[in-house]
Write a structure and sequence with these properties.
about 30% helix; four-stranded antiparallel β-sheet; about 325 residues
């Protein structure tokens, strides 16, 4: 392994100052970064360990959930408020990785984990995300599990987080500390589209630290679900996933939250489908029409067009089940 330096700052201000150095990376749980270092994808000169600086607190007040960036997946998934008021989040967390990894990984790190695209992880292959302008061999190569939404000619990698999909559906806000002061960023705005610079994955300023995630109160958050489809039963990344919450009044959709995973370079908030469903009966016909309006944006390649039907079927099933729950 390539040599690197290691620092444990005493506070956030020190971390921000240290991280101003070139080729520096923050270390939290390390479940993604360390893997990429072993592969040679990441080659930092300095690791700044912020584990002790990140709050692990999970609090709920007036329906608003605040999650410290250092919280672990098991603690968050098992929190009473999460299980009762936001089951979609609990289910997404428990669907991700193995128990051992969930125990170590942090919420902040989960949001910033990098793609599992095989070309990105193989330093012997060109990849625009690793080296802009080199090429995207996935477009003509192995892209069966890659993006059908939001990609570009330069990159069709998918974001791997399950948790981020649930948080996107719930309208979460990310709290960030920077050298210029604190910021709040809507989670769906945290990630950038690949365009011609897929190496730029978020809007975070260099050295910025995610300190917390806030989930706003949602009156129908308890009527929510996360469903993940993968190629094997466990310890696998999704090939398609759906996070949904549904509010029905008198047989009509009053409000709905919907997000997709494993189909885009970032968690995909299905705003078109949401708008099409509000004020409609949650019939199979209406659900399929709304999803068709959303997936009209899809640009599948040779081997991943199946994801259009997959996401449609998952979402119709999830929303139908939630509609049935509200009618009982």
């Amino acid at each position: 392994m390539r040599q690197f330096s290691y620092e444990q700052p005493a506070n956030t201000a020190d971390a921000l100052a240290i991280a101003d150095a070139p080729n520096t990376r923050y270390l939290g749980g390390g479940t993604n970064l360390v893997d990429l270092m072993k592969l040679g994808v990441e080659q930092p000169d300095l690791l700044v360990d912020v584990t002790s600086l990140l709050s692990r607190d999970i609090t709920a007040q007036d329906g608003v959930l605040r999650i410290g960036a250092g919280a672990s997946s098991p603690d968050l998934a098992g929190h009473p408020t999460v299980r009762q008021s936001f089951p979609v989040l609990s289910q997404a967390l428990l669907a991700g990785a193995s128990g051992q990894l969930r125990n170590v990984a942090t919420v902040g790190g989960n949001l910033l984990q990098r793609t599992r695209c095989a070309y990105f992880q193989d330093v012997t292959k060109p990849c625009n995300k690793r080296q802009p302008g080199s090429a995207c061999p996935a477009r003509q190569g192995d892209h069966r599990n890659l993006a059908i939404l939001g990609g570009s000619e330069h990159c069709i990698a998918t974001h791997p987080s399950d948790m981020a999909v649930a948080l996107a559906a719930l309208g979460a806000v990310v709290h960030v500390e920077t050298a210029r002061g604190p910021q709040q960023i809507a989670l769906i705005d945290l990630y950038t589209d690949p365009g011609d610079r897929p190496d730029r994955e978020t809007v975070l300023a260099p050295g910025a630290i995610i300190t917390a995630v806030q989930v706003p109160a949602l009156s129908f958050g308890s009527v929510s679900r996360y469903v993940k489809v993968r190629e094997r039963a466990s310890y696998a990344f999704a090939i398609g996933s759906v996070a949904a919450a549904l509010d029905i009044d008198g047989g009509i959709v009053r409000d709905v939250r919907l997000a997709f995973g494993a189909v885009a370079p970032k968690p995909w908030r299905a705003s078109r489908a949401e708008n099409a469903l509000r004020g409609q009966e949650p019939s199979e016909q209406n659900l399929k029409a709304a999803l068709a309006a959303e997936l009209d944006q899809a640009r599948p390649l040779r081997d991943n067009a199946y994801k259009v039907g997959l996401i449609t079927n998952i979402a119709v099933g999830v929303l139908s089940d939630l509609a049935g729950e509200t009618e009982r």
